[in-house]
Design brief:
This protein has about 650 residues and is mostly helical. About 60% of the residues lie in helices and about 0% in strands. Helix 13 runs parallel beside helix 17. It is elongated, with a radius of gyration of 38 Å. It starts with a helix and ends with a helix.
C-alpha cells in the first residue's frame, strides 16, 4: 500500500496540520476541488473522533474496534473522508485488505472525479481504477510536456511513460512521422506495453465522442492495423487476450459506440490478413461467443459473429457454445421487444450464412436440437398470443427449414416437431382470418390487407412442403389445411404474393406421388369446379393466371394418375373448359406444346448452314445486309 501511495506523492494537497505526523509515510492523492464533483452531506465529527480514539487503543486489550466484524468495519469506514480512509488502511493488514477490496468505498471516490483517466483493460476493483487515475495524473503534472515535445522525445529514442502515450498520438505530426519511417518511433511502437496502450486508447470508454476523440481512435486503429504491428499480435497471444477483453466490457444495455466499430474493424483486419491464426485463437476463447450473443443489438460486433459462422474452422466451437440456443433464449417476454427483434434478425442472418455449408454437423445440430426448437415454439405460443412474437418465430423457423437440402435423407427433428404443430398454426390462420381486417385504399377502390403473420404461416407451410417429406403432406391433409388456403386464395383477389404462395403449395401437392391424398384434396377443395367458375365470372380478379397454371399441372398429373383422370372425365364442365378455354389461353400465353412445333417441315424453322469465311470478305454479300445504326435512327426520326 505504501509503495502505491508513494507513486502519487506529488498529488498530496495538505488541507490542515492534523495529518503532519504521517509525514512521508502517508503519500496520498486528494483530488483538487475542480477535479471532483460536489457531494452533499457533512462529515460526522463524532464518528471520526471515536474511530481515532479506538485506533489509538488497538494495541491494548480494551480496544473495542478489534472485536468488530468486517461488515461492521465497512460501515464505519464509509463515514471517513478520503485522507482518513487511506490513513486507516495503514493501521494493519486486515484493515488494508478490507478497505482496498471494497468497491462500495471506492466507487463514490472514483465517480466523483470529473474527467477520470479510464481504461477498458481488466481492472478488478474501483480502488485500482482510482489508483490508475492518480498515478497517471501525477506523472502528467510532473512532466508537463506538450504533444510535440513527447513526439520529439520518442523520435530521438528517449523513454516516455504510458501516461504520455495519449499525448504522443495526439501530436499533429504523429502519423507523418510513422509514415516517414522514423526508426526509434517504429521500435517504440513494437513494444508490448505500447501496443496495449494503443488498444486502450482506441477502445477505452468515454462519455464524449467528439471529433478529437474520434481522431485519436482512428490513428490508433491505423497504427495497429499496419503489417508491422499485426505480426506482433500473432507472436504474443497476450495481446490478443487484451484485444478480446473488450467484449467483456461492452454494455449490452447501451447503444453501440464507435469503440465497437473500431474493435470490429480491427478484428476484421486480423481475419483478412491472418485468417487461420485468428480463427484458431477464437476457437480457444471460451467466453467469446457468449459475449457476442449478449451484444446482439450491436451490429458492429455481430459482424465478428458472422465471420465465425462463415468459417468451418470455428463450427465445432459454435456448437459447443450452443449458439442457436443462446440466440433463441433471447426470445422471451423478459427481454425488450427491440432486443427480441435484434435476436430474430441475427438468427436469420446466421441461418442464411449456413446455407452454403449443406449437411454439416453445425447445420444438423440446429435441425435436430429439441431444446432450441422447443424454445422457439414456446415463444410463439406463449399466451396471450402476440403477432409480434409469432412473426419473429415464424421468420426463424422458415429460415431453418430452408437449410434442408435434397441430400437430407432422414427426416430432421425440426420437420417432425413442426408437423405436430400444423394443427395449431392452421387454427391460428383460421382465427386471424375471421377477425376484422384492415382496409387500404387503392386506385380502383379498396382492398383488404392480408397481414404479415398470416403470410408467415403460409410461408411456413410452403417451406415444410418443399422438404418433400411424406409426413408433411399427410398432416396438412389430415387437418384440412388445403381447403383453408384455397378459400384465402379466392378471397384476396388482388394479393399476388398470397396467390403465388398458395399456388406453389398445390404444385408441391401434385408432386408428392401420393395419388390417394391428391384425389381427396381435389375433391375436398372442389378445385376443378372452382377453376371453371372463376373463368366464367365477369368480376375482375388477379388470380386467373395462377389458376391456369394449376389447371395445367392437374392435367399433367392426370396423365399418370388414373384416379385423378377419372375425376376429370366425370366432370363435364372441366372437360369443356380444358378442351376450349384453357387451350385458347395456352395458345395465347405460349404454354406447353402450343409454343410451336419444331419439325423439319415447318416453314417457320430457321435452317442453320455452315458458311465459308470467304463469303464475308469486303466485297462479299455481307455488305448487303449491313445496317448503319445511326442512319436507322435518323430515318426513324424522319
Amino acid at each position: 500500500m505504501e509503495e502505491e501511495l508513494n507513486d502519487v506523492e506529488d498529488e498530496i494537497e495538505d488541507e490542515g496540520n492534523e495529518f503532519e505526523d504521517f509525514g512521508a509515510e502517508l503519500n496520498v492523492f486528494i483530488p483538487d476541488e475542480e477535479d471532483t464533483q460536489e457531494e452533499g452531506g457533512d462529515e460526522d465529527d463524532s464518528v471520526v473522533d471515536e474511530i481515532t480514539r479506538q485506533v489509538a487503543m488497538l494495541g491494548s486489550s480494551i480496544s473495542e474496534v478489534s472485536l468488530l466484524h468486517d461488515h461492521l468495519l465497512l460501515c464505519v469506514f464509509h463515514y471517513l473522508p478520503l485522507r482518513d480512509l487511506l490513513s486507516a488502511s495503514l493501521v494493519c493488514q486486515n484493515w488494508h485488505q478490507i478497505i482496498i477490496s471494497s468497491d462500495a468505498l471506492w466507487k463514490p471516490q472514483y465517480l466523483a472525479i470529473r474527467s477520470p483517466i479510464t481504461t477498458y483493460l481488466p481492472i478488478s476493483s474501483f480502488y485500482e481504477r482510482y489508483l490508475l487515475h492518480t498515478q497517471r495524473k501525477a506523472i502528467l503534472r510532473e512532466h508537463d510536456y506538450t504533444p510535440d515535445e513527447i513526439l520529439e522525445m520518442a523520435v530521438e529514442g528517449n523513454t516516455i511513460d504510458i501516461a504520455e502515450l495519449d499525448l504522443l498520438v495526439a501530436a499533429p505530426t504523429f502519423a507523418a512521422s510513422l509514415q516517414s519511417g522514423e526508426p526509434n518511433l517504429l521500435d517504440l511502437m513494437q513494444e508490448k506495453w505500447v501496443i496495449t496502450g494503443l488498444l486502450d486508447l482506441m477502445l477505452r470508454p468515454t462519455l464524449n465522442w467528439d471529433e478529437e476523440r474520434l481522431r485519436i481512435s482512428h490513428l490508433c486503429f491505423q497504427t495497429l492495423g499496419s503489417d508491422l504491428l499485426l505480426d506482433e499480435f500473432l507472436e504474443h497471444s497476450s495481446l490478443l487476450d487484451a484485444l478480446f477483453y473488450f467484449l467483456e466490457t461492452v454494455n449490452r444495455r447501451t447503444p453501440p459506440e464507435p469503440s465497437s466499430a473500431y474493435f470490429s474493424r480491427f478484428v476484421g483486419t486480423l481475419f483478412e490478413q491472418h485468417p487461420t491464426e485468428t480463427m484458431n485463437y477464437c476457437k480457444q476463447h471460451v467466453r467469446m461467443i457468449g459475449n457476442l450473443v449478449e451484444n446482439v443489438h450491436n451490429p458492429y460486433l455481430m459482424e465478428i459473429l458472422y465471420k465465425l459462422v462463415d468459417s468451418n474452422l470455428t463450427h465445432q466451437r459454435l456448437m459447443e457454445s450452443q449458439l442457436f440456443f443462446s440466440l433463441a433464449s433471447i426470445l422471451n417476454e423478459n427481454e425488450t421487444k427491440e432486443r427480441q427483434e435484434f435476436a430474430t434478425e441475427v438468427t436469420m442472418s446466421v441461418l442464411t450464412l449456413c446455407q452454403p455449408w449443406g449437411e454439416t454437423d453445425f447445420v444438423r445440430e440446429l435441425l435436430n436440437s429439441s431444446k432450441t426448437i422447443t424454445q422457439i415454439l414456446n415463444y410463439i405460443k406463449t399466451p396471450p398470443i402476440s403477432q409480434f412474437r409469432v412473426q419473429n418465430g415464424l421468420k426463424i423457423l422458415v429460415s431453418a427449414l430452408q437449410l434442408i437440402g435434397e441430400d437430407c435423407a432422414d427426416e430432421p427433428l425440426l420437420v417432425t416437431m413442426l408437423s405436430t404443430h400444423i394443427e395449431y398454426f392452421a387454427q391460428l390462420l383460421k382465427d386471424l382470418s375471421t377477425t376484422e381486417t384492415q382496409i387500404a385504399p387503392v386506385t380502383f377502390g379498396e382492398v383488404k390487407l392480408f397481414g404479415f403473420v398470416r403470410l408467415g404461416i403460409i410461408e411456413l407451410f410452403l417451406s415444410l412442403m418443399w422438404t418433400a417429406f411424406p409426413i408433411v403432406v399427410e398432416v396438412l391433409a389430415t387437418y384440412h389445411v388445403f381447403p383453408l388456403l384455397l378459400d384465402l386464395f379466392f378471397e384476396y383477389k388482388w394479393n399476388n404474393i398470397v396467390h403465388h404462395q398458395i399456388a406453389k403449395m398445390f404444385s408441391c401437392l401434385l408432386c408428392c406421388n401420393n395419388y390417394e391424398i391428391m384425389k381427396s384434396v381435389i375433391e375436398e377443395c372442389n378445385i376443378l369446379n372452382r377453376i371453371v367458375e372463376a373463368h366464367k365470372s365477369k368480376e375482375p380478379s388477379g388470380y386467373l393466371g395462377h389458376l391456369r397454371d394449376l389447371a395445367n399441372d392437374l392435367l399433367g398429373v392426370a396423365d399418370h394418375a388414373p384416379s385423378i383422370n377419372i375425376l376429370m372425365e366425370e366432370n363435364q364442365l372441366w372437360r369443356d373448359f380444358a378442351a376450349n378455354e384453357l387451350e385458347e389461353w395456352n395458345d395465347i400465353e405460349c404454354v406447353g406444346d402450343s409454343v410451336g412445333d419444331f419439325d423439319d417441315d415447318d416453314d417457320d424453322d430457321i435452317d442453320i448452314v455452315l458458311c465459308d469465311v470467304e463469303d464475308f470478305d469486303d466485297n462479299g454479300p455481307y455488305e448487303e445486309y449491313e445496317i448503319d445504326i445511326d442512319d436507322a435512327y435518323e430515318h426513324e426520326d424522319d
